[in-house]
């Protein structure tokens, strides 16, 4: 990424002149229009982005605090509106001058965004959707800015989390209480640490009940409504009598597709149960027909806390990381209300 020195060299001006123009001080410092145009053209040609930390936190200037939200625009992009709702609520209630900028990145490639951290494009960051490679990269980095991890635990970093293993345990306990004895798991093709922990909790509690899930009932599907629908059609194309009696889905995106793939056969809930982790807009699972039992991810509340951690340490780098866990709640609905 280009720096102000590169801009000065390309424009043929001094470093101080380039800095004055880049920081919007041309008029008060009486920089000629011709020189301004040369610098601005050089900035455009080099895709130069001024250092916001130097600009907005300099004494006497605007105290707007810019936070980058790192988010992967795969299926999880549909969850971002819930997160932003929580962030907006906290900023409004706290009445702070804070802006959120969306910084798209590809999970597993956070290291490619290093220049964004070191060049001061923002004052703090919230990182969502990180995988093990991203966490490994962060563990060996030492950025001098507040960084909050969303639902990822890493020593030395503040984070906001849920107990992922408990989510799996809650799902297992619910389906056992409802009388299901031959369950299956449908998880998305994109894996992450939390999903692994959820399934570990699910398998562990079922094993305590004396239930084992054979390998042919551990199923992969695209993490979307379409992926769930296609998976459901594939399952039903085989012998229906060999189907599981309940399916634990890693997200309600998959569950929505699944139950709609089986709508004509009226399989849910008469013969088969469906339970999912609730990532999507809660209205989708609540008002679907049939409504879907979910263990809700409190995304809005978690987002508020991410924002609160930043507000607590605004304009000051906090050496001691803060970690908070949120409660998850199971909403029992029609999809696991099988008629015995």
> What about the largest sheet?
6 strands, parallel
| Derived structural class | alpha/beta
- Give the total of beta strands: 12
Annotated CATH architecture of the largest domain: 3-Layer(aba) Sandwich
Helix content: 25-40%
The topology string of helices and strands comes to: HHHHEHEHEHEEHEHEHEHEHEHEE
Distance between the first and last residues' Cα: 64 Å
| CATH top-level class of the largest domain | Alpha Beta
CATH fold field value of the largest domain = Rossmann fold
Strand content: 15-25%
The low-pLDDT segments are 52-61
Number of helices: 13
Determine Rg (CA atoms, Å): 25 Å
Mean residue pLDDT? 88
Condensed summary:
By secondary structure, the chain is of the alpha/beta class. It has helices spanning 4-11, 15-22, 33-46, 52-56, 80-94, 114-118, 132-139, 164-177, 193-208, 225-236, 252-261, 282-286, 299-312, and strands at residues 65-71, 98-104, 124-127, 147-150, 158-162, 183-188, 218-221, 246-249, 273-278, 293-296, 323-326, 329-331. Strands 2-1-3-4-5-11 form a six-stranded parallel beta sheet. It has a six-stranded mixed beta sheet with strand order 7-6-8-9-10-12, with helices on both faces.
């Amino acid at each position: 990424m280009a720096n102000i020195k590169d801009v000065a060299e390309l424009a043929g001006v001094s470093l101080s002149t380039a800095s004055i123009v880049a920081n919007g001080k041309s008029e008060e410092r009486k920089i000629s229009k011709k020189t301004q145009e040369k610098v601005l053209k050089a900035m455009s040609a080099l895709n130069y982005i001024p250092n916001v930390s130097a600009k907005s936190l300099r004494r006497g200037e605007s105290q707007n605090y810019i936070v980058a939200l790192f988010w992967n625009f795969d299926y999880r992009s549909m969850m971002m509106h819930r997160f932003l709702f929580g962030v907006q609520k906290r900023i409004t209630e706290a009445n702070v001058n804070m802006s959120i900028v969306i910084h798209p990145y590809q999970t597993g490639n956070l290291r490619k965004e290093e220049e964004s951290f070191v060049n001061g494009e923002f004052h703090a960051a919230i990182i969502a959707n990180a995988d093990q490679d991203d966490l490994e990269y962060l563990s060996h980095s030492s950025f001098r800015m507040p960084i909050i991890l969303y639902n990822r635990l890493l020593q030395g970093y503040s984070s906001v989390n849920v107990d992922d293993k408990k989510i799996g345990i809650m799902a297992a306990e619910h389906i056992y209480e409802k009388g299901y004895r031959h369950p299956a798991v449908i998880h998305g093709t994109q894996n992450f640490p939390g999903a692994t922990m959820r399934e570990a909790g699910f398998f562990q509690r079922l094993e305590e009940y004396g239930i084992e899930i054979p390998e042919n009932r551990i199923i992969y599907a695209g993490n979307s409504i379409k992926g769930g629908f296609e998976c459901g059609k594939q399952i039903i194309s085989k012998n229906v009598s060999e189907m599981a009696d309940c399916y634990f889905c890693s997200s309600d995106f998959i569950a929505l597709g699944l139950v709609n793939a089986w709508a004509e056969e009226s399989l849910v809930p008469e013969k088969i149960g469906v339970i999912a982790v609730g990532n999507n807009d809660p209205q989708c699972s609540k008002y679907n027909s049939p409504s879907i039992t979910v263990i809700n991810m409190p995304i809005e509340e978690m987002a508020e806390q991410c924002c609160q951690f930043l507000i607590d340490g605004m304009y000051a780098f906090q050496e001691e990381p803060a970690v908070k866990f949120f409660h998850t709640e199971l909403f029992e609905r029609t999809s696991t209300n099988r008629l015995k």
